[in-house]
Amino acid sequence: MKQIDRRTFLKNSVLGLSILGFPNTLSSHSKFPYNKSPNFVIIFLDNAGYDDLNRKACRLIRIPNLSRLAAEGVSMNQFYTSLPFTSSSQAALLTGRHTIRNGIVRTLLPTDEVGLPRTEKTLAELLKRKGYKTAFIGRWYLGNCPNYMPQRFGFDYDYVSLKNYETLFNQKSLIKRYTKEVVNFIKIYRNNPFFVFLTQTIPYIPFESTKDVNNTSKKGFYNDLIEEIDSNVGKILNSLMHLGLKNNTLVIFTGNKALSLLNMKDSGMTSSLTGGEKTALEDNLREPFIARFPGIFPEGVVNNEIGTIMDIFSTCLKSAEIDIPNDRPIDGQNLIPVLQGKSNSKHEFIYYYWKDQLIAIRGGKYKLHFKANSKEWKWEGCEPKELYNFETNQIEVCKFTHQKLHIILRLKKEAERFKAEIAHRRENKELVSKLLNAN
User: Fold this and answer.
1) Per residue in 282-309, pLDDT tens?
2) In what order do the strands lie in the sheet with 249-255?
3) What is the topology classification, in CATH, of domain 6-347?
4) What's the pTM value of the predicted model, to 2 decimals?
5) CATH 1.20.1260.10 describes domain 350-438
């Protein structure tokens, strides 16, 4: 296959945008005075759920670099996205706020003329105020218009895709291009504190089978891409090590949601979790999570506490000794003491939404699902349907009985309270209505 040089690639795609007047090339700056500020590298996969990268569930996939990351850090086996849309997950991670608050209740499409509200305070923006150099690399899902590009939300540099270019470009090559940008950014700003948010655009449908991916895994083409991603994670980790940045860099690896491959012959996928689109079941919302911070987090630990993608916001800010905004509700919690094993999760309740509808709530070891009209995917208020006990079975097969009535009533009451709070605050209500009516 003919190689495409960077200049030609940029000319024919929307990667490396400069539409806001920022250059596509990186420039070096003077040494930042606060060298003790930690660096942050967040690696985010689109359409990769908990079981896709669960080493016990997927032993046939070779992921030595992710295994190394886990061996040098902490893994969480109960880590959740906010809502199973890429736009919603990105918004929740960057704002530390539930999607019902920040307004991104579904995936933003190329035809949408809206994006993440400019009134939201992002992790990149807050880090930049302290002098961090910030970069977004990968697929940007928070708006397609100039007013909603990464550099409007605190990113100094972006190298982004706005569309599904996997059908046009070799997928393996695209993974390498993003990784190269990350490594280059780290090299240039190695004497400055930096924040890199890498969102790999794949695994994604449709797959483009190429000679570059040789079906080397034993579980199909989808997992060949997972192995390729693992290889490129290794390049980033090696770069940090060779530049002497490993001990001062918090690396977080997570994802968005499990990819539904029921109709694909070459998926090779199985799941140990119950799931389904438009549900609050585990396979749709539980995500892989690994955090490595040498000297701060223990090594090779699997943490059983509950975490959410919104927690990354508060965790990074606390690590950088930056105050968490107090002018709005922040749903994310600081995971540092949790990952250190010094504290239990502060999440008393987890609220599961489908778009603007509360479909389930979790409190401790119990999750209560609410009734729904399956034909219209409408949830009927907070009427209980099923109660699950995570302590006895994480695959959610435990049905509630009248003996658990006090638990059901407690969770129902909290769900009603939360819904009333959201209705009262009316945060980004116009955006929510616009997205739902346009879809």
Assistant:
1) 656 788 899 999 999 999 999 999 999 9
2) 157-161, 133-139, 194-200, 39-45, 249-255, 289-292, 74-76, 301-303
3) Alkaline Phosphatase, subunit A (3.40.720)
4) 0.85
5) no
